[in-house]
């Protein structure tokens, strides 16, 4: 992001690689001259010696057009997934530079779409644009490249402010702090200080050995419905009409809804009878859905299923993924 003629930040094509070549913590021109025998301005980028086992050599691929992440759609997630598939055997790992606004949605979607993933995928960005003097983006990018180039963590992750987190466990938690992302119900996979500390016991490994593939179809017919006191029947009914296939229902506390609102509970029941999948998650920052109260059990009786401790981003994108699985029947999808 760079300031445009209006004085606001916007993506600028072709600006990133020339800038990275000027940052000594992100590119070592002497290594290029000594080992690559090619013009420095045509070479890949190379990290300086960071004390890790391998020197990281990396190439930047830039999308056209560049997008602010607020403009992302399902189609952009599919594009990224297919690009990783096309380049899967050319690189040891992948770093995706992404705006922060929808980063957790992209990380969650890719975590489901990249099936049987065997390589590290790190998504990162910055609160202060990389071209600004005080940017946090340079350190985030450096740490992401070190992780992707030296550690086999075969998940889609987000790296921000010296933490590597499972992507589908993250939320953006601040618009103004550099510690902008957190994982409310799961500790980071990696913490970065003087040393890099990996919690290998928490790193996900696929239970079977299978070829990497991309599920490149997602259902667009999903949505988030947040309950609030005195929500109208008309609002709920309109939300549940065709073509909706899946709903993330954000409820109070441990998964509670007004049990005295038989009208909206009946709408939920009718929708589930039609095959709509409604998943109950809490509006709270942390914790999980537990049907320990009458107000929560009323949703279970209406056919709503528990989303446990999933984030809204993870639940929405998983619904989109699951509903696109044509080979599964409704019972399997639920």
From TrEMBL:
Record SMART domains: Asparaginase
Gene Ontology annotations of biological process type: aspartate family amino acid metabolic process
Single GO molecular function: asparaginase activity
Keyword set includes Metal-binding: no
Pfam families: Asparaginase, Asparaginase_C
CDD domains: L-asparaginase_I
Coiled-coil intervals, chain numbering: none
EC number: 3.5.1.1
Annotated L-asparaginase N-terminal domain residues: 46-202
Broad class of enzyme this protein falls into: hydrolase
Entry keyword Nucleus: no
Entries under InterPro entries matching the protein: AsnA_fam, Asp/glu_Ase-like_sf, Asparaginase/glutaminase-like, Asparaginase/glutaminase_AS2, Asparaginase_C, L-asparaginase_C, L-asparaginase_I, L-asparaginase_N
Active site, UniProt feature: 100
Domain annotation Asparaginase/glutaminase C-terminal: ranges: 221-332
UniProt keyword list: ANK repeat, Hydrolase, Repeat
UniProt similarity note: In the N-terminal section; belongs to the asparaginase 1 family.
Protein name: asparaginase
């Amino acid at each position: 992001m760079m300031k445009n003629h209006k004085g606001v930040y916007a993506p600028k094509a072709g600006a990133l690689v020339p800038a990275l070549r000027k940052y000594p913590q992100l590119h070592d021109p002497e290594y290029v001259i000594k080992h690559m025998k090619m013009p420095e301005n045509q070479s890949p980028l190379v990290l300086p010696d960071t004390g890790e086992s391998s020197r990281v050599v990396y190439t930047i691929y830039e999308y056209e057009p560049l997008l602010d992440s607020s403009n992302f759609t399902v189609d952009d997630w599919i594009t990224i997934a297919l690009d990783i598939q096309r380049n899967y055997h050319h690189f040891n790992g992948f770093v995706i530079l992404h705006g922060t606004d929808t980063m957790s949605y992209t990380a969650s979607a890719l975590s489901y779409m990249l099936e049987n993933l065997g390589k590290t995928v790190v998504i990162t960005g910055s609160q202060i644009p990389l071209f600004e003097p005080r940017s946090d983006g340079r350190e985030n990018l450096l740490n992401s490249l070190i992780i992707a180039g030296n550690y086999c963590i075969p998940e889609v992750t987000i790296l921000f402010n010296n933490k590597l987190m499972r992507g589908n466990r993250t939320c953006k938690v601040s618009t103004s702090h550099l510690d902008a992302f957190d994982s409310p119900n799961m500790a980071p996979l990696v913490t970065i200080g003087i040393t890099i500390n990996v919690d290998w016991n928490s790193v996900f490994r696929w239970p079977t050995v299978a070829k990497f593939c991309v599920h490149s179809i997602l259902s667009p017919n999903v949505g988030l419905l947040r309950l609030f006191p005195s929500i109208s029947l008309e609002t709920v009914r309109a939300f549940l009409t065709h073509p909706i296939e899946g709903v993330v229902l954000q409820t109070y506390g441990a998964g509670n809804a007004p049990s005295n609102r038989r009208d909206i509970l009946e709408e939920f029941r009718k929708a589930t009878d039609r095959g709509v999948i409604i998943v109950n998650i809490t509006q709270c920052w942390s914790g999980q859905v537990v049907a320990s109260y009458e107000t929560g059990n009323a949703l279970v009786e209406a056919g709503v299923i528990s989303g446990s401790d999933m984030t809204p981003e993870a639940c929405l994108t998983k619904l989109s993924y699951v509903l696109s699985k044509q080979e599964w029947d409704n019972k399997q999808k639920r």
